[in-house]
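Justification of computing resources. Each target in the renewal requires a structure prediction run like the one illustrated here; the chain below, 242 residues long, is used simply to show the kind of job we budget for.
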Amino acid sequence: MKWTRAQRGMTLVEIMIVIGLIALLTTTIGAASAKLPAARLRRSSTSVTSAIRVAYFHAAARSRTTRLVFDIDKNLVWMEESDAPMLVQTHGAAASAGADPATTAEKAAVAEGKTYNQPPQIGRATYRMVPFDLASGTAEADEKGKLKLQPGIRFRRVQSSHDDDPRTAERAYLYFWPGGQTERAVIQLSIGDKARPPSMDETIVSVETSPLTGKATVYSDARELKAITDEADLSERKDEGR
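Resulting C-alpha cells:
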C-alpha cells in the first residue's frame, strides 16, 4: 500500500527544523522584549531634557522666573511661571515644599515688618502652569500640557541645588531665571515599579543640568549632585570643540 505525504506524517528532519524555527523565534521575541524597556528609558530621558530646554528659553523669553515641577509619585513633569521674580535659597526644603514656596529670607522680612507695624511688603510669588507647546520638541505632552514618562519608567530621585537631600516622593522643583541661569540638578530615571526595592542591577540614567548654560546631559549611570564650585561653573563656558 502506497502512503501519501499527508498520511505518513513528518520526518525527524522536518520536526527538527520546526523546533529550530520555534527556538529562533522565541529568542528573537525575547531579545526585542528586553530592549523595549531600555528604549522607553531613553525616550523618557529625551523628554526630560526637552522640558529643561523649553523651560530655560521660556524664562529668558518671558522675563519670568520659571520652574519645572516633577511629580515623582505620578511620573509627571510640567512647567510653571511666576508672576514676579523670586529668590531661591541655596539649601533647605522651604523653597520647594509647597505649591507657592517662599524663601527663609522672605519669611524673616515679613515677620520683622509686622513687628514694627510698617512692613516693607514683599510679594509672595505665585505660579501658574504653562502647557508645553507640542511644537517645541516636547512631543510626549498630553492634552493638559504635561509630560508623562513612558510606561514602566519612573523617577528614582530628583535633587536641585536648593535641596539638602534628594527627593524620592511627592514633588521636586527645578528653577530657571530670566538672566539665563538655572540650578544645578540631577534627575535620575529608572526602569521598574516604584514598589520594587533598588538593586545593584537596576538600569538607571541621570539627567544633569548646567547652571550657567542650561545644558542637560544624559548619563547612563546613577549620578549624584555635584558640589558647586567656581571652577566647575567656569568650565561650562569653555568651547570644547576648539
